[in-house]
Amino acid sequence: MTNETEGVTVSGADALLVIGLVALALACGAFVVVLRRFPGRGAGAGQAGQLTGQAQAEAQAQAEEIRVRARADADHILGRAAEAAEQTAQQAAEGRREVEDEIRAVKDEIRQLRGDLERREQRIGERERRLDDESRRLEARGQALEQRGTELEGRAMTLAEAGARAAKELERVASLTAEQAKAELVATMENQAKREAAVSIRDIEATARSEADKRARKIVTLAIQRVAVEQTSESVVSVMHLPGDEMKGRIIGREGRNIRAFESVTGVNLIIDDTPEAVLLSCFDPVRREIGRLTLERLVSDGRIHPQRIEESYERGKAEIEQICQRAGEDAVAGLGITDMHPELVSLLGRLRYRTSYGQNVLIHLIESANIAGMMASELGLDPVLLRRCTVLHDIGKALTHEVEGSHALIGAEIARKYGESDDVVHAIEAHHNEVEVRTVEAVLTQAADAISGGRPGARRESLEMYVRRLERLEQIAAKQEGVEKVFAMQAGREIRVMVRPEQVDDVQAQVIARDIAKQVEEELTYPGQIRVTVVRESRATEFAR
Predict the structure, then answer these.
(1) 537: enclosing H helix or E strand
(2) Residues sharing a CB contact under 8 Å with residue 497, sequence separation 6 or more, in sequence order
(3) I want to staple 411 with a disulfide (CB 3.0 to 4.6 A). Which of 137, 397, 475, 544 is the partner?
(4) pLDDT in tens, 382-391
(5) How far apart are CA 149 and CA 462, in angstroms?
(6) Which tens digit of pLDDT belongs to each residue from 266-306?
């Protein structure tokens, strides 16, 4: 502080000296100017000396005043310098204290970190000691396990040798090799498993039937009772009654030209025999046969029969049949409560009015099946309208089987998909003959309604040859089972009664045989309704009293 103050004082003295020199120079300059302004005036020399003395006095006064002001400024500057020096000293002291505080905080932090590091090193050392101890224990345990494994290997070799000796002894005693004994054991276990499975299945089926049969019987019985339909039996021949036998000659025409024209135009065979007042119309296509019948009826009622008139009557009959088919489809859909079906589907449905399957009218079968399915759906809490829609369209493909190759189920599914039916309806159509795996409840109920309608007594008929072939195949399937003695196909092929040998087949095996026969019949044969398989095992003991 003293050094700094002294430095400031020296600087103020220098300033005063400079200021005095400047003031002296100014005074001299002023004196020279006065002398030059009055050089030639001698009389004023005294005055000039006087003026010079005044100028010097004024210059000294000004210099003194300047010196005083300079000294005051220097004192002021010194005071300010002293204050600045004090402030600087205070700031330096504060900065020193802050630096010392920071150094002290850093030292504390370093001391704390050093303590943490020492504690961490101590923990790491303890962990390393524990790991070393654990490693030594593991090594000791590994050595013990190796020793134990060696002992177990020796014991296993001893047991294997003893087992081999025992197996040889058993083979010698039983006179069987190991493979033969294994095969016999597997066969025994398989038979036992089958027996246990059959017993379990029988118990489960008995428990399920006690509830399911009542419910199913109630649903099906109610559906059948509420549907009253006629028993139909149609053929490929239609009978046309005539007003008199003389009409036969007019139908034949001169040299048979009328009958030839009629058959060529309609595609229907006209059979005229000795039957009084009647002719027969034969054709495999029921629509063409019906058109031919209407054509002949119109010709007979008109009385004018010639080739041109036959063609005109045929065109009118064809248009009338189309109207009848359309009206039949509309009536069927309206009767079932279906209002949003595509017109093409309605037209195809009406064409089934003249189509039969095993003697059963297809349109009547569809209406009957739809009503049954709707009733079962109501009993089960499903949508009856959707079920009626699925069932009434399930045989729609039969309307085009004369024109398109393929199964009527798949054809019907494509037609329904083409005309915007839902996926549930399409699936029910394509799966009602199991050509596609059944995935929905609607498809199952469609199958059930189809089977009920087609399997009821009098609904359908089949040819004698197909009937006999089916019965023979049923007996062949049952006779192939092991232990079967006799087979009888009964009730028109709706029941198979199988007699088995009691010494070869027990009660459980009889249940297995019945199940196998039923499964094979389902896979190989096509039949309406269901077929019951009954296996009879009878034991008789006979003795004579003499």
Answers:
(1) strand 532-537
(2) 487, 488, 490, 534, 536
(3) 397
(4) 888 999 999 9
(5) 78
(6) 888 888 877 788 888 887 677 788 888 888 888 888 888 88
Q: For the sheet with 237-241, list strands across it.
A: 237-241, 278-282, 269-271
Q: Counting Cβ atoms within 10 Å, is residue 379 exposed (0-12), middle (13-18) or buried (19+)?
A: middle
pTM for the complete prediction? 0.46
Q: Tokens for 541?
A: 């003991």
pLDDT score of 359 more than 70: no
User: Cβ of 377: how many Cβ atoms within 10 Å?
Assistant: 24
State pLDDT tens for residues 376-416: 888 888 888 999 999 999 888 888 756 666 778 888 899 99
Q: Which residue has the tokens 């065979």?
A: 269
Do residues 332 and 367 lie in contact, with contact meaning Cβ atoms separated by under 8 Å?
Answer: yes
| Nearest by Cα to 298 from 251, 358, 257 | 251
Mean pLDDT score, 295-323? 86
Q: Distance between CA 173 and CA 88 in Å, rounded?
A: 121
Sign for the pseudo-dihedral over CA of 47, 48, 51, 52: negative
d(CA 78, CA 11): 10
SS3 84: helix
Place of tokens 């020193």: 96
Q: How far is CA 164 from the centre of its chain?
A: 56
